[in-house]
Specification:
The chain has 195 residues and is an alpha+beta fold. It has 3 helices and 6 strands. The model is unreliable at 15-33 (pLDDT under 50).
């Protein structure tokens, strides 16, 4: 083999190897962790009056159910849901059961008009309401979930709301709770490992 041919073969091999060997590029560089979303707690006070056809709640029972929905939707754990003024006594069903709510929701810093405290880390988390999710919900709570979605959920920062809840008045048969959304909530606290 002539020297020129050998030289050409060596150059072609070297060039081919260089082209096939991965080299770091900007795309290969590890992505910098995006800063967490920041949010501030906003206080809400609301008198929730339940008016339904199928289920009837006592005021204390309604307050308990609404608190479950508040916490599941991303409200701060210290949320309060107290029985409101009811015509019936404690534990007795009332056609116009009422619960007085005081709760805090997380709002992105840019959207916060009135806040309670300094910014904290927030995250978007998926929430799903259906029969037995949260476990305290049953099909009979269908109208309660509808009214919660209409009257209370707008006080939360949400996105991608998909409501397929269907409530049949005066019967549980045929009713279905199906409400999914993403809620802006406090990021879980990361505990430092022991030394």
């Amino acid at each position: 083999m002539s020297t020129n041919l050998k030289l050409a073969a060596v150059v072609a091999f070297a060039l081919g190897t260089a082209l096939l060997t991965p080299t770091p590029s900007f795309a290969d560089a590890p992505a910098a962790a995006s800063p967490p979303d920041r949010g501030v707690w906003q206080k809400h006070q609301y008198s929730f009056v339940f008016m339904g056809f199928t289920s009837t709640y006592s005021c204390d029972g309604l307050a308990d159910k609404v608190k479950v929905l508040l916490i599941a939707a991303g409200a701060r754990p210290d949320s309060k849901s107290r029985p409101g003024a009811c015509a019936s006594g404690f534990g007795r069903p009332d056609k116009f059961a009422r619960a007085d709510l005081t709760f805090y929701t997380l709002a992105p810093v840019t959207d916060a008009a009135s806040s309670d405290g300094k910014p904290i880390d927030g995250t978007w988390r998926s929430v799903s309401f259906s029969a037995r999710s949260p476990r305290e919900l049953s099909t009979g709570d269908c109208e309660l979930v509808e009214q919660f979605r209409s009257n209370v959920l707008p006080m939360f920062t949400t996105r991608n709301v998909a409501n397929h809840t269907t409530c049949v008045p005066h019967q549980e048969s045929g009713s279905a709770i199906s409400l999914q959304f993403e809620s802006f909530a406090a990021a879980p606290k990361v505990h430092a490992p022991p030394p």
